[in-house]
Amino acid sequence: MEHIEFNKELLAFLNGSPTPWHAVATMKARLDEAGFKELDEREDWTLESRQGYYVTRNGTSMVAFRTGSKDVTTSGIRMVGAHTDSPCLKVKPNPELRRKGYFQLGVEVYGGVLLNPWFDRDLSLAGRVTILDDNGEVRDTLIDFTKPVAFIPSLAIHLDREANNSRAVNPQTDLPPVIMQVADGDSTSFPELLKGQIQEQSGIIAKKVLGYELSFYDTASASFVGLRDEFIASARMDNLLSCYIGLQSLLNTTGDEAALLVCNDHEEVGSVSAEGAQGPFLSAVLDRWCGAGKARAIAHSMMISADNAHGIHPNYADRHDQNHGPILNQGPVIKINHNQRYATNSRSAGLYRHISDELGLPHQSFVVRSDMACGSTIGPLTAGNLGVTTLDIGVPQFGMHSIRELIGAEDGYTLFRVLTEFMQRERVL
């Protein structure tokens, strides 16, 4: 895959994945096209050598893998991990608000959202809805309004003269989006709006809406930015970028070595769930793949946890350690924290640097300032659950957890090339 094609497909992937459900559905379609076979956790598995497989959980997490041609207990598995979720605003179960003739929806903040950028954006709504259909069956369906259907208007500066000095955001009172105007006595309900959209979008007749998990998102498309197109701007770059890179790397391997991609949900809220990195999903898949040889296989394996890093902001350079300020378009960032917020050790970092150097590709290192708190990733959680040697790495970006984030147009492709080589390398440990 060439650089230009890689980035064009990245933009399409980002635009088509407004929620984790849509991201996993998109990845499934690409795996199906490449000849991977879907597995069902409720059924027995019979795995063949040199074959690709994938399994999903809750529709928001996925493990995809190639079995390779060798005994996995002695050859090990080359693993890459990412997460499908991003900070956002989710609709509450009883969200309807009618105020001054406006119909609004109450929202819950999911993850560490940078709230101010959500104002004055064209927002749409997407996610999963559980319904009772016209045959009396309980079923799930994905929904995406696609067009702008909501707006969170700022309060005019004339009514808040201190807005540019200090404007705090109250998530309960300031964030309910406006979705339409309603007349006095109007009985429009949110479930009825959902039923109409479901029928229009998929032809399914929903007798009753039983539940939903819906998120607002910015309708602005992912795009190149800069006079020389040096950057890519998009929503959900953290961490759909790494999901895309990991998927493309797995699809472009030779298939000789055992390789695996795990994309977990719920990283932004701690990863404690059935499909999160602190849950049993990946371990359960490895149990069924490796059987009694699982411990030996893991001892021969390595995990690369790919999650975006903080690029040094030119307006806030003092927020970085002076020797560890990653620059956009100067390579992926090896993330190090000796308090184990990142799982990198000298061995895992050394292997990545070696492969990158062999390919003539750049790499950088990141350590948070000693007087600042450090974030974390699925890396330490996966390492702790499995006992696998792990590296934390990521593409540097601006605006992490904003509604729109920015990366360098070169860095994703660089990481893809290194991860592809890692996934087909004969020996990693």
Automatic annotation (TrEMBL):
**Which superkingdom does the taxonomy of this entry point to?**
Bacteria
Q: Which cofactor does it need?
A: Zn(2+)
User: What organism does this protein naturally occur in?
Assistant: Marinobacter salinisoli
Q: What is its EC number?
A: 3.4.11.-
Instruction: Name the Gene Ontology molecular function terms of this record.
Output: aminopeptidase activity
- Please give the name of this protein: M18 family aminopeptidase
- Tell me the PANTHER family matching this sequence: ASPARTYL AMINOPEPTIDASE
So what family is this one in? Belongs to the peptidase M18 family.
Matching Pfam families: Peptidase_M18
Coiled-coil regions listed = none
NCBIfam families membership:
PRK02813.1
- Recite the UniProt keywords alphabetically: Aminopeptidase, Hydrolase, Metal-binding, Metalloprotease, Protease, Zinc
Q: Which CDD domains match?
A: M18_DAP
Q: Does the keyword Protease apply?
A: yes
